[in-house]
Amino acid sequence: MSRSWSDGTWTHEPAAVEEVGGDLVVTAVEGSDAWRHTSYGFVHDTEHALLAPFAIDTAVEVEFTAAFSGEFDQAGIFVRAGDEHWIKAGVEFADGVPGVGAVVTDIRSDWSIAPVPDWTDRRITVRVSWSGDALTVRAAPTGEPLRLVRVLPFLPADPGAVGAGPMVCGPTRAGLRVPFHAWRVTDADASLH
After folding, report:
1. By its UniProt entry, which Pfam families does this protein fall under (predicted)?
2. Which domain does 11 fall in, by range?
3. Is the pLDDT at 173 greater than 90, yes or no?
C-alpha cells in the first residue's frame, strides 16, 4: 500500500521540500544527522525523517535515488521509538563510495556499513520489517532482489508510539537533494531468507 507524503510529520524540517511529478525532493540542512555518543562523544539529533505510525507485523519501504557526493550524505528509513531508541538504515556515502548499512541506537549508537560502489546514482529500495521482537533490514537497487543488511532486536517500551519513514541527512555540506520516489507499507517479511 502506498503511503502519501502528507501522512508523515518531520522530526526536523529540511531546508526545502517539494513534490515533483509524484516524487518528494528533500534538501537537507548542512550538519543534519542522527547519532548518540559512542566513540566520537557527540550527539546529533537533527535528522530529517518523515515519520508515520509503524505497527508490528508490517514493513515500511522507501525508494530514492542515491546521487551522493559529500562525505556522509545519506538517505533511507528512520524508525523512531524514542529520543534514545531509534535506527536509521539505508545508503551513506563514506570514504568516497556509497555504502549500505544501519545505525542502531539504544542509548548509544553503533554503525555497520558495507561498500556498494555499483549503487552510485541508482534508484534504491530500502525495506524495514517488524516481526515479533526484531527488525529486519533489506536493501538493493530497485528491481533487484533485496539483500539482507541486518537483523536487530527491537522491543520498544511503547509499541504504539513507534514511527517510521523516509530519512535524509547532510552531515558535512549544504545542498544535498534526495528524490524519494515511493513510500509503502506492506506485510512483515515471512522469513529471513
Report:
1. DUF1349
2. 5-185
3. yes
